[in-house]
Every structure is written in structure tokens, then in C-alpha cells.
Amino acid sequence: MSTGFFGDIQKIKYEGPDSTNPLAFRFYNPDEIVAGKRMEDHLRFAVAYWHSFAWEGSDPFGGRTFDRPWYGDEMSKAKLKADVAFEMFSLLGAPFYCFHDADARPEGKNFAESTKNLNEIVDYLGEKQQQTGVKLLWGTANLFSNRRFMAGASTNPDPDVFAYSAATIKTCMDATMKLGGDNYVLWGGREGYETLLNTDLKRELDQMARMLHLVVEYKHKIGFKGTILVEPKPQEPTKHQYDYDVATVYGFLKKYGLENEVKMNIEQGHAILAGHTFEHELALASALGIFGSIDMNRNDYQSGWDTDQFPNNVPEMALAYYQVLLAGGFTTGGTNFDSKLRRQSIDPADLLIGHIGGMDCCARGLKAAAKMVEDGALSKPLSERYSKWDSPEYQKMLRGEYKLDDIAGWVEKQDINPQPKSGRQEYLENVVNRYV
Ligand code: XUL
Ligand code: CO
């Protein structure tokens, strides 16, 4: 039975590029085959419960701007929220969703009551999944909003908070497992510091590693088949977040022996905050063998804040999905819209329109990327650029069969005299522009 929240809006359909209907897809056509696979199976779209249903439109200077019938602390409101959320997933044809415990259940007066509320809402979400066929891409714990986490969760100087966080993660992993989630995510919301003057950095990193080991052990204990994902971010809310970027997290995983157990959930806006392009983070994760999933939301390039906007830049998406395709595509991962409306976009239809635009933009990016892969548009010039390495002598050098003095002798004997070659950046940029 419909809640009526979206009025008489019907399931969003693909109408093709010429459509001017704001409530139709122009490029996202789930059944269309791209590079041998249905578009829906490539992109694996997920809606983020928090931004669309839990966030009330506040910013640092003002409070709630949205007016939704499910706001409030009662379980009945949480269920209405779930009803509307699943209605939206179905209208959009989004195959997945993602949620934090705190998005979906009322906070209890203590841990036991919060867990009881979570379990009740998880049963309800399970029924909704059954009814609609929508699945869970990932679950996670909100260990950053409540004031108990203000000095961190696993990295808190107070071990009571570490224990409370561990207990909360356990309940959220149970919930994710019960709902058949494909991944479990850890974003280090307040795992960082405001000032080194009150922070023992080494202790905090050790604590964070202990928590991640506990998570991995519990995953195996309960037989969770999904992937454990860490989501890097350089700052916001803390001045310095320990999971700064892909490179930093990889170093952390290596130091603590977790590099074969954990993969990355890479967010476009976080990449930008870290001073990287999205494709840099994706390419690096892929090169390190830890690519997992993506959060698809852009920042405002002028304000520099983590503004979590829907993607609308097709060339950026094309380069991102190009890296995703090179990495072999998603396995357990997907494209989660960790995106929210602007706080003036108060109409129910805005929720749909934001996602429709994002899905269309990703679809265009994917199609451009697939064509670039198919044509070898970038891979041919790339392999040409490195082709000299294929020669037997250079292969031996790469394998470590020559020492430094051998190489010096060889260079002298062969009279090696490197001749600079063009990097052809403008040419390659023009090639990309032919596809987007
Ligand atoms: C915060 C952020 C989170 C994570 C999940 O910037 O991206 O929403 O995706 O905790
Ligand atoms: Co995110």
C-alpha cells in the first residue's frame, strides 16, 4: 500500500535522450547491454538512507528545512520512513540501498534498547526487501553523531567508548548479515584529531587497528560472505582523519596485516578533499588490489566542503567508470549515491529528480568508458608508451636480474642515450572528449 508521499508519481521509465520529462531516464536503461553486461548489473546503484530520509536539511547556520511525516523518535515513524524509502527505491528501480543503524532505528535509552530497536527495524527492512526485491549493498554503524563519540570511536582515549563502539559494530554486522548485505562499511567518522596537543597518535592507530581486527575476526566467525570496506576521507569532521586517502589506508592495512581482508569504498567528494582526482583514488586502489565500491557524490569545487551533491559531470564520471572497468568492474561493490539534496529542494519530487540525474550521468559515463575500453582509445597509446619495456633486457632488469653496476656497464657498452618523447597529453584529452 502506498504512503502517498510521492503523490501520483509512477515508476520512473527510460524514455531516451530526447525526453524532456524530468521524471524519466534519458540515459539509464537498466536492460541495455554495455560491454556484454546489463547496465543495471554494471552500475549496481544504491540509495543512501541517511541523506534522503534521515538528514533534515540542516547546515552549520540553520536547522531543519525539510518537513517529512516520519520525523520523530517513535518506532511507528521509523517504519513509515522505511515505507517511503522502499517506495522511492522502487520508483527509481534502484536495486540496492545502504544504511547506518542510526538512520533507521530510534536511539534507545541505553545500548540494549538501541539494539532492540535496531533488531525490530531490521526485521521490518527484511520484509520490505522481500516485498520489493531491493537488496542491501552495505550496512554500517553511525559512530560519529552521538556526543559519546565526540573524541572518536575506536580511537577514543576512553576505553568505554571503544567497547561501546565494538558492541555497536557487532549489532550492525549482525543486521547486515541478516539482511543479506553484500558489504560492511567502516567510515572513520571521528577517527582522527582536532589537535595533537591532546592526542597520542600511536595509541590511537593501534586502537583503530585492534577494532578492524575484531571486525575481520567476527566476519569469519559468523560466516559473513560480503566484503569489509574502509572509506577514506582526509578531514571533516576532524581536522585530520586517520583514513586520509587510499595510500594512507593501504599503509595502515599493511602495517597491521589487514591488507588481504579489507577493501576500499572510495567516495568522489573525499578524493577531492584529499587533493586527488576520483580516478586517481580508483586507479591506486585497483593497482594495490583493494578496489571495492564507490560513493558517488561530488563536492562544490569553490567552497571546498564535503557538500555531497549528486554527480552531474559526465566527463568526470567517464574517467571514473573507465577505472572501474579496468579494475574488472564491481564484484560485491556498487555505486552508492552518498548524495543529498540542497536544503532548498524541499519537494518529494526533488528526491527522485536528484537520483534520476545522478543515474543518468553515471550511465552516460559508463557508456563512454565502455566505448573507450572497446576501442582501446587510451590503452593502445598507453601500451605503446611503455612498449620498450617488453624487450628481453629490460624485462630482466625489471625482474631484478641485473644489479646497479651491471646496468651501469650495460648502459656504457650499449651507449644508451635516451631520446625524450612526447607525453601527448593534449592529444589524449582530445581523444577522451570524442567519447563524452
Ligand atoms: C561521510 C560519509 C559517510 C559514509 C558512511 O562523509 O561519506 O556517509 O559514507 O558512514
Ligand atoms: Co560516503
UniProtKB/TrEMBL annotation:
Cofactors named for this entry: Mg(2+)
Any single Gene Ontology cellular-component annotation: cytoplasm
Subcellular location: Cytoplasm
Catalytic activity field: alpha-D-xylose = alpha-D-xylulofuranose
Active site: H100, D103
Residues given in the record as Mg(2+) 2 binding sites: E267, H270, D306, D308
InterPro entries the record matches: Xyl_isomerase-like_sf, Xylose_isom_bac, Xylose_isomerase
SUPFAM superfamilies membership: Xylose isomerase-like (SSF51658)
Entry's EC annotation: 5.3.1.5
UniProt keyword list: Carbohydrate metabolism, Cytoplasm, Isomerase, Magnesium, Metal-binding, Xylose metabolism
Keyword Transcription on entry: no
Example of a GO biological process term: D-xylose metabolic process
Protein name per its UniProtKB record: Xylose isomerase
